[in-house]
Design a protein that fits this description.
Layout: H1 2-22, E1 36-42, E2 45-46, E3 51-54, E4 62-65, E5 71-73, E6 75-76, E7 80-81, E8 86-93, E9 95-96, H2 110-122, E10 124-125, H3 129-132, E11 140-143, E12 148-153, E13 160-161
Parallel strand pairs: 1-12
Antiparallel strand pairs: 1-2, 1-5, 3-4, 3-8, 4-6, 6-7, 8-11, 9-10, 10-13
């Protein structure tokens, strides 16, 4: 008798799972994509854990995160590898938050507000704004009808407050 109560929940879960899995199909309005790997160098070393955005006006987000070797595989909406053909503005960002700042018991307390203010003051962008700000970025990626492997050197590390 108890199983009958849970049967609708189980069936609903299966239906949602199947529908959810079907959602991974490539959308019809996604432009043709070409494989793209971007390597980022900072201070003559691979830059790990940086976020790379490839600006495109298709309505899809093209981005990737660098690994320990400084390499990022760019994907559309985090699912479909590649970028569309054309010339794109690239931004590269690595945000570092303080690791020694103890979190309060409650974010809704006076200590929580102070913590958030301190966190905002001490969180830093480590990539020069001429690469991490889309309005200032000088980085360009040209994509033709083939795979792209590009390397960008973002120079020396900086420490720009994200609160500014």
């Amino acid at each position: 008798m108890k199983i009958n109560r849970f049967l609708p929940c189980i069936l609903s879960g299966i239906v949602l799972f199947v529908i959810g899995c079907g959602g991974s199909k490539t959308p019809p309005d996604l432009p043709k994509l070409y494989p793209c790997k971007i390597t980022v160098i900072q201070d003559n070393k691979p830059l790990e854990d940086a976020i790379i955005f490839v600006r495109h006006d298709s309505g899809f987000s093209f981005a990737g995160r660098t690994d320990a070797k400084g390499v990022a595989v760019i994907k559309a909406d985090g699912r479909w590898p590649g970028v569309p053909e054309g010339e794109h503005v690239i931004t590269i960002s690595k945000i570092v938050k303080p690791t020694d700042l103890p979190a309060p018991e409650s974010m809704f307390s006076q200590e929580g507000r102070k913590y958030m203010e301190q966190l905002a003051k001490e969180t830093k962008e480590t990539v020069d704004l001429k690469y991490s700000d889309a309005k200032k970025s000088e980085l360009r990626l040209k994509v033709g009808k083939k795979a792209v492997n590009e390397t960008f050197d973002v120079g020396a590390a900086v420490a720009v407050s994200t609160a500014e």
